[in-house]
Amino acid sequence: NVAFVQDIRGTQPGVDRDGQTDTVQMHVVEGLVAYATDFSVKPMLAESIEESEDGLTYTFPLRHGVTFHNGAEMTAEEVKWSWDRYMDPATNWRCRSYFSGEDGPEVTAMEVVDPYTVRFTLASPSATFLGNLARFDCGSTAVLHPDSVDAEGNWVAPVGTGPFTFGDIRPGQYVELLKFPDYVSRTDEPDGYAGAKEALVDRVRFNILPEAAVKKTAFLAGDLDISTIDPSDIDEIEAAPGNVVQTVQTAVWDAILINTRDPLLSDKRIRKAIALSIDPEQMVAVVTEGKGSPNPSPVPPMSAFYGETEAKGIGYDPEQAKALLEEAGYDGAPITILTNRRAGGYFERALVAQAMMAEVGLNAQLETMEWGTQLDKYVTGDYQMQSFAYSTRLDPALSFEMITGDHPRKVFRTPEAMELVEQAMTVSEPAKRQAIIDQLHEAFLEEVPAISVNHRVMFYAMKDHVSGFRGWGAAKEIYWNVGLAE
Amino acid sequence: MTFLSDLSRRLNGRIGLTLCGLVLLAALTGLLWTPYDPVKTDFMARFAGASAEHLLGTDMYGRDLLSRVLSGASVSILICFLTVALAVTGGVVLGALSGFVGGWLDRLVMMFTEALMAFPGLLLALSLMVILGPSEFGVILALALAYLPSVTRLVRGTVLSVREKEYVEASVALGNGWLYTLARHVLPNCVAPLIVLATTMLGWVLLAESALSFLGLGVPPPAPTWGNMLAEARGDLTREPWLGILPGLCISVTLVGVNLLGDALRDALDPRNDRAA
Amino acid sequence: MWLYVLKRILMGLPTLFLVAVIVFALVRLIPGDPAQLMLGDLADEQSLAAMRARLGLDQPIPLQFLIWLGDILRGEFGHSIRTGEAVLPTIMGRFSVTASVVVFAVLAAMLVAAPAGLIAARFQNRRLDFGIILTAIISLSMPSFWVGLMLLLLFGVTLGWLPTIGYVGLDEDLGRGLLYLIMPVVALALTEIGVLTRMMRSSALEVLRLEYVTHARAKGLSEGAVLTRHVFRNAAGPSLTLLGLILASLLGGATVTETVFSLPGIGKLIVDSIYARDYPVLQGALLLVASVYVIVNLVVDLLYTVLDPRVRLS
Amino acid sequence: MQHTPSVLSLSGVEIGFRTPRGLTPVVHGVSLEVAPGEIHAVVGESGSGKTMLARAAIGLLPPGGEVTAGTIAFDGRDLAAESEAAMRRIRGAQIGMIFQEPLVSLNPSMKIGAQMAEAARLHTKLSRREIRARALEMLHAVKIADPERCLECYPHEFSGGMRQRIMIASVMLLRPRLLLADEPTTALDAVVQREVLDIMTEMTRSLGVAVVLVTHDLGVVARYAQRMTVMERGHVVESGPTRSVLAAPREAYTRRLLGSLPVAPEGAHTLPQAGNDSPTGAHTLLPEGNVSPTGPHTLSASPEASHALPHAQTPSAEGQAPRGAQASGAAQPAPFAGRDTPEGAPGWPVAGRRGGADGLAEGPQASLAEPDVPRTVAPGSPAGGALAASPHGARGAADGPATELLRAEAVEVSYEAAAPLPFMARRVNRVVHGVSLSIRPGEMLGLVGESGSGKSTLGRALIRLKEVSGGRVLYRGQELSGVSGEALRRLRARMQIIFQDPYSSLNPRMRVGAIVAEGLRHAPPPDSAHPVEEMLEAVGLSAAYAARFPHEMSGGQRQRVAIARALISRPELVVADEPVSALDVTVQAQILDLLRELRGRMGFACLFISHDLAVVESLCDRVMVLYRGRVMEEGTARQLFEAPRHPYTRRLLAAAPFLEPTPAGGYALRVLDEARYPAPDPACYWPGEGEGRYELAADATAHAVAYRRRAG
Ligand SMILES: Nc1ncnc2c1ncn2[C@@H]1O[C@H](COP(=O)(O)OP(=O)(O)OP(=O)(O)O)[C@@H](O)[C@H]1O
Ligand SMILES: Nc1ncnc2c1ncn2[C@@H]1O[C@H](COP(=O)(O)OP(=O)(O)OP(=O)(O)O)[C@@H](O)[C@H]1O
Ligand SMILES: [Mg+2]
Ligand SMILES: [Mg+2]
Question: Does residue D253 sit in the same domain as residue D353?
């Protein structure tokens, strides 16, 4: 019994999806490749990954003896069938554009080399091809058996290769996963979505409990084995016998966005003053109960590209902030920070920011709203500042891409930044990429389109009879290899 | 004055008046003065217990609880009053016209109130809150609209029954115009049930605001109301129950006061109970 | 009688149409974009546009309304934007959960409130009366989520007697189903008991003043018989109306209670749909709720004639 | 003096109410004995403690009330000593009680059968079937048409009179020894009242039940009670055999009470403007010194007076006797058996067919004459000339529209019920069918008829408070429905209405001064500086009352406020709808005096609607009898009261007990000398019966009667 926030949207990987749905689906289906804990891409159903020198072809020898939930063996045929289905616009696959040439290099061919080998051919080299294949929101480009659809091609249910199958789905109550007894595991170490998997429990029930107080009570009452909890509850839960709290650093980026197109905030000095007024150490300490540490960069700390440059921030200097404000002629005009009461510390961050900004004379006001409305304002760029968060981006280029661009929802709007992001997307050589990322970070600090607070730490409370649960940076719970002691 | 003394002669009236008086006093204090800024956070002093510095302690963000309760009183009470005032004004105008004029106007108004009533008040308010955006103003407007139909119906019902009374006919017989008759003869007789409804409604508004806050759409924090304080404290019920008990108690006390007062008012306004002690 | 029912249903139709208009307008007035919400921060232009087109949100709003209305009339409520499930079965399923909780709660409330109100009225202005009324007022003075959380803490956590989450349909397993219902029912009933008790008391007071009560006493009936046989039925009218209103409004969503006890009820569905801007579900659910209101009112009026033969249905 | 042991005996009973300010006594040392088979009436002013006395006897004082002294003994047992459980066994089984209002005394949500059986199951060991049989028997005894069906019905399916009869049946079902009847018929009209009381008397007599009858209707007392007790402010003023108390009241209060009875004017029913010199103030107050004490309360005329009365007795013998000397034997139900179906009534002596325009009384009418007042109608005088004394008796040429204040032509009024289905036709309930009338300035037109016959509705339609659905109403030749806006408002100020229920016609939240002053809003500016105060004083209220609220006044005072409001604008026409129906006789007399006086002073015309025939007789010039929305008979008051021709009119008259002063200074029941009434014409019209068209035909004296005309 585990806690879960909302209903899943469906069972069709990469199509009927949202972050929560992905989490569940990833227990049922697998792709050729998968993300490992360090966000490197590792083979999953593929035995290995063979990239050509020119970076234009990828060949995947498949593992032998992997069975679908319906008992059939997985072969290149199904991989091909799955791919063709994804690339059919009628399928509505979320990630089609990444492979069709619209939004990255086109996959010109996908061939079955032999029953246990497939090959992809790209129009141009891509640093992100493998990553895109493994993306959660693409449903890991899961390999499905044609039985997943009916004769007319309508979706029925995923017949995949994962360690679990779908059990009971009760909207508004829970989603249940059942152990797939014939699962054929890899033999390498469990590593994120890659590596060995074994369903140790017969069933996993994702209870839909959006209300934090309820979740906590249910956990305390022993009706949940694992649950995310608010940082403020850690002490209390740990104090009770039989409870364990696991702290996990994730790649979810918590930031306070500053609308660079706002008349007042378009003044870089004011933005800088805001950034300087905020003491990241204290803010993070408050929001995470001292469990997290600040991160001045959008790039997550566990990323291979996270280096010394990224760890350097603008610093906390109220005096300089005041001076800048003076220089900019700030007259105490109110600055509104949008926030909401969702779990995840949005509200607390805004609250602390407001208090800290007030210290240097910035007249910040909080406006708490419902998430949907805030999101709308985010998209239309109709705000001054807002407490926001971005879900896991496993590639540093994407970490910048998500805030950089010309669209109203993007805050990092300098041509230089856009150019750099463009480069980061195509260059795949690590050293060169690192340089670009470093440059981007510096530009980010210079421009101050957002205040990077930290990458979120999550807290999982579990009963001490739970073994093997490991949270990871992707902030996606994994329930294979998790067992319950009697 | 005789009315007030009549009220205070009853036990429920006395208790009701006392409790409501206390609440009003708190609201007034909160409006004029609080020991600290109620939204001022102090992360060094979170969950502080009662002390000389913070008489009632502080909350999860280190805000002074006494200040918040006082200031919350003024916001909550203001919201209650404005909401009720709005609903009553609108309801009286609509209900009176609908009941007195009758005909298609009546049918139209009734269809609208019927349609509005077909939504549970909280849901209606909830939808409106999402549309209006959470703010004191939004809460007031949403709840007023949610309660408008019941006031309209009450007034219309009373107007309809009063309209049948012979003193209204007598007024017509004297040659008085309908507006005069409505204002002079009909409406004053709707006042008693309306007062009772209004007092009850004050309580509902308080509860509804806290329910809205619980669902994430009440008066947006950090501005304190009892409702959102209670809602905010729900996660800390096991850790620091006091944070929830205090605003909860405030709400309950107000409701008890208002309801007792409403009861007493009903008794006092009912001529048949004249002699009741 | 059947003519009356027919008439009431006919009269309910314009109301329901108006409700449909209001629902639609309300829903479309909500700022935010379902496509946006679904895709979250990962959204980009193409996927948003594609999503909108798929949801039919790219049509002009009046057209959307007509399409929706046409669909409704054909009994087609559409599919959820979020989960793609057909709306009608979804809302019916959710409604049945709410209904089982609410009906039990209202019955329980009435079972307590009716005698309490009668007794309070009988001993008007005495200490017993005051005690009952004070209890009633206190019970209705507590915010419902507060009551719910307290119950959860007490019976779920501290005592560990009752499950804190989950729901089992009564049709699946009666015993366990009831077990899961206890707390929500108690929480809901607690707040309604107060209102009903007070209503019962005041209408019983009216009746107690009437001559036939004295007449019943003059026949030599005991107080208990007078209260149950003569006062109760005649005093039940206003309480029944109130009960109907409560029932209708709770059936339309005991939102808070459902949230606290994580029940998959219609109120919670509506709130979730609001948050997710799941227009078809929201519209369907609100329409259902409004129809329930109309039907409950009709049933209450029919019951009224059982209680009070003077009320003729014409 | 009683020789049989009393069933109920009160001695020195005092009743008080506990209030926050201490004990308020309401009944002071009342003693009273009721023998088996005896009907003992308790009369007195309103609030004198009659109800409390009755309720004390069954141990059901309202909360706060208690018996503070004295004993109440039932069958020799002191009720105070009985436990509550024992009292419950006595209630219903031994002592039955009938309450004032039949409309609220039966539980509306229980079937009659269940209500009747309830007490029987409690107090007897009878089986279900036996109880049912007995219930049927009782219902039969009270003349309920279909007892079987009745058991399955709910109270609302019956009229007030039937409900009261059912009440009696259900109380008598248990054969109680004592029956307490608290104003059992005040809400009923004369005909129904008569039926109910007759049945009650009959049943109590046959079962030997002792009855305490609380009432304020002295006529009822005279007709039904053997003994009476007069109460005033909690004290017994006078007690004794009915006839002797009535014939020779000893106490001032009793005399005052009796003196307040309305009495037919001794002169002709004439209009003041007609130049007739006869006084309009015919109401006579007994001068204090006028009555010589007559010693013991026994009637010299009738030795057996104080004991049980012979039941069936033909009044024909007494019919010849002068009214004033009427003996107590006349205090009998008149033998008009046709209570339910008037036409089939064998009791109506059919003396002759209607021939031509005559048909007025042919017998000597001396019985109605006061010795010293010359009658305008000479005994035996031809019908044609009999009523010529009234200048407006003939409706002929003299009746030019110019002299008419209000004229109604074939007025129809209906109430619309909501349509059963939308878009279906509304159901229309026509209440007034083609009524024509005219009122001249200064005329008092009486309107009588059974409850629900449309009197109030007609009154309202005449001043356009209700729209007519047919016909037209002309006010000084101007058609009312054509007027609107300001003109209508001005017109309305000239026509006023005094509503049936004074209390509900006064806004409870306005002070009396403001209420009365409202009457001036649309009236021409008054000539005096303090019109309100003057008006209040004119209706006999001191100016200080202006500051009061309606609920701070007594019924009579409120009534006068309503009258003041109607009269302050000096209207030309007033519709007075039952202004005195709910009042006790003293207050009633006050108001009638006032009306007469005002008419004399201001010369206004009045449509006077009432159930109380004695009042109408004493006040009105002309009278119309309405039955189911149609005029049954119309004529001068004298014509109607002395020579009624329509069976319905006669039924009304027969039912109403009139008390009249005797020459000896006391009072006795008036006997309707129906033998000398002209025979009702079988061709008279009854709504809903037989075919044929309704037609109102007047004779030369403008005495009009409804006839049925064959179609075609
Ligand atoms: N519940 C009560 N509390 C206090 N005083 C009461 C109460 N009920 C009646 N009284 C008083 O008792 C007195 C006697 O009342 P009661 O009803 O016996 O009068 P009544 O003679 O029956 O009058 P009516 O002819 O109007 O029915 C009145 O003065 C009345 O004010
Ligand atoms: N507002 C109304 N709506 C419908 N029907 C009515 C209404 N008022 C009166 N009636 C009906 O009209 C008929 C005549 O009523 P109305 O009041 O004129 O009688 P009434 O002669 O004045 O009787 P009463 O002597 O009892 O006052 C009755 O049958 C009554 O039921
Ligand atoms: Mg009385
Ligand atoms: Mg009338």
Answer: no
Dihedral class, residue A110 (left if φ above 0, else alpha if ψ from -120 to 50, else beta): beta
Contact D521 B165 (CB under 8 A): no
Residue D249 lies in a domain: yes
Show the domain range for C40.
2-73
Residue C79 lies in a domain: no
**Short-list D459, D518, D473, CA closest to D493:** D518
What is the token pair recorded at B3?
A: 């009315």
Say whether both C68 and C92 belong to one domain: no
Kindly state the tokens that stand for D60. 């059901």
Instruction: For chain C, say whether B275 makes contact (Cβ under 8 Å).
Output: no
The answer to whether residue C93 is domain-embedded is yes
Question: Does residue D309 share a domain with residue D179?
Answer: no
For chain B, the C-alpha Rg in angstroms (whole number) is 22
- E strand or H helix that includes residue D40: strand D39-44
> Which residues lie closer than 8 Å to C74 by C-beta, 6 or more apart?
none
Considering the domain architecture, whether residues C13 and C106 belong to the same structural domain is answered as no
Same domain for D405 and D478, yes or no, is yes
Residue with CA at minimum distance from ligand 1 atom 5: D17
What's the D97 CA to ligand 3 centre distance in angstroms? Answer: 13
* C81 assigned to some structural domain: no
Contacts (Cβ under 8 Å, ≥6 apart) of D487: none
Chains D and A touch (3+ CB pairs under 8 A): no
Across the interface, of A8, A18, A223, the residue whose CB is closest to C40 is A18
Question: Which residues lie below 8 Å from residue D430, measured CB to CB, with a gap of 6+?
Answer: D412, D413, D414, D469, D629
Domain with D534, as residue range(s), is 287-571
Query: In chain B, how many H helices and how many E strands?
Result: 11, 0
pLDDT digits (tens, 9 = 90+) for C58-83: 777 788 888 878 887 887 777 777 77
Chain D positions in Cβ-Cβ contact with residue C212 (cut-off 8 Å): 104-108
State which residues have CB under 5 angstroms from ligand 4, the bound ion.
D 456, 500
- Mind listing the pLDDT tens digit for each residue in B54-112? 667 777 777 777 778 788 888 888 888 898 899 889 988 888 888 877 778 888 888 88
Q: Describe the strand order of the beta sheet including D8-19 as a list of residue ranges.
A: D22-34, D8-19, D65-74, D77-78
Atom 31 of ligand 1, residue of closest alpha carbon: D47
Helix, coil or strand: residue C142:
coil
Q: What is the pTM of this model?
A: 0.75
> For chain C, which residues lie within 8 Å of any Cβ of chain D, measuring from their own Cβ?
3-4, 6-7, 10-11, 124, 210-212, 214-222, 229-230, 233-234, 307-310, 314
Backbone angles phi, psi at D656, to 5 degrees: -85, 125
- Residue D62 Cα to ligand 1 midpoint, Å, equals 10
Across the interface, of B167, B185, B277, the residue whose CB is closest to D20 is B277
Nearest CA to ligand 1 atom 30: D47
- In the predicted structure, residue D284 carries a pLDDT above the cut 80: no
> Does ligand 2 have an atom closer than 6 angstroms to the CB of D456?
yes
- Do residue C249 and residue C135 come from a single domain? yes
Residue A4 has pLDDT above 70, yes or no: no
Give the atom of ligand 2 at the shortest distance from the alpha carbon of D432: 14
Shared domain check, C96 and C11: no
Query: Any idea which fold B9-30+64-269 has?
Result: MetI-like fold (1.10.3720)
- ipTM of the predicted assembly exceeds 0.85: no
Residue A404 DSSP one-character state: B
Tens-digit pLDDT profile for residues C219-243: 888 888 888 888 888 888 777 878 8
From A1-10, B130-139, B234-243, D234-243, the region with the lowest mean pLDDT = A1-10
Q: What is the rounded distance in angstroms from the CA atom of residue A261 to the CA atom of residue D331?
A: 106
Report the candidate in C179, C296, C302 with the shortest Cα–Cα distance to residue C244.
C296
Ligand 2 atom nearest to CA at D500: 27
Same domain, D186 and D231: yes
